[in-house]
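Take a minute with the sequence and fold tokens given here and flag any structure token that looks odd. Thanks in advance.
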Amino acid sequence: MTTSNDDVIWGIEQGEFHVEYMPIVSLATGACVAAEALVRWKKDGKTISPAVFIPEIEGTPAIGVLTYWLVEQVALELGAWLRAHRDFHLSLNVPPELFGRGGLQYAAHHAGVKDLYPQFVLELTERGSPDHISLEGLRSARRLGLGIAIDDVESGNLNLLLLARTKLDYIKIDKSVVDQILSDGMIEETKEEIRRVAAAGRPVIVAEGIEHEVQARTLRELGVRLGQGWFFSKSLSVDEFLAFVPR
């Protein structure tokens, strides 16, 4: 199935999109300390995967409209709760080009959540390189107190990210790396890279796609502090998420 810029904007107008929240837990304590806000699209009774429609709208107006909608929806659903839980962080996937062109600041101001900047983490994908305006926008985001994470990091790139540790707050290790732990396919060099980054303390490693206890235990032994995945919880509606956190 293919989607277009107009399909996504029409879907937003028709209320076909909603937000789910993927808990991020402390691997040491099991406590839920953060979450990732995920956009979900249900059209004609069928769920369209973000892996399908997000790449198709990158670089189009729809990605900006969808991002503005996400910020407003998060503000509506969790704004008051986040103000009551100032140690909790929420990750948002936001295109870099929106930073430098003022889009994110406008959306946050319009949604009334500028005071929550220190609790927001902006997740950037590895693919592509932001232009000079976007890079300045990222620096501005850091000055405003927003956290910066790089998403979907695979094992071959961990050493490069270690060099950039002072410019990032979080590194999100891709599920493909986590899967290697269970299959005994992870080479010692990769484990050592994880240990080195984890021991540095900054950026904080978040392991994605944890599905088994042995993965969680091994990552914890490597020094990884945070994780997410179905071993802990699937992505949840806002009501399910608010019920999950105290547990």
